[in-house]
# Entry
Amino acid sequence: MDFNDLKAFVAQHDNFEIRVIGHAGSHCYQVELEDVEGRRHMLTRSGKPMLFRALDDVYLELKRAGIHRAYLVQQVPHDEVIGRDTHYRDPLASRMPLVF
# Structure
């Protein structure tokens, strides 16, 4: 989903979740939207996932799309290595609310 698609989606829908995904050991963040049907859409540019070097950059981009709340999710390689699914919906265990 590119930025213009994200902006149009936000204008037409109100039931979705935005996740700012950070990977352990990395200083880059990605943005993912999950719609009410459970489909996940990564924010892309020219067909490639957008990477942000700082949370401030993420905040500015999301504000431009009309989004003011998201969840910060930290992916830990340990879960992936042992074959365990990541649990984004566990309360405060794997995600932190952001308001900007």
Q: What stands out?
A: The CA atoms of residues 60 and 67 lie 10 Å apart. The two ends are 22 Å apart (CA to CA). Residues 3-78+92-99 form one domain. The chain has one domain: 3-78+92-99.
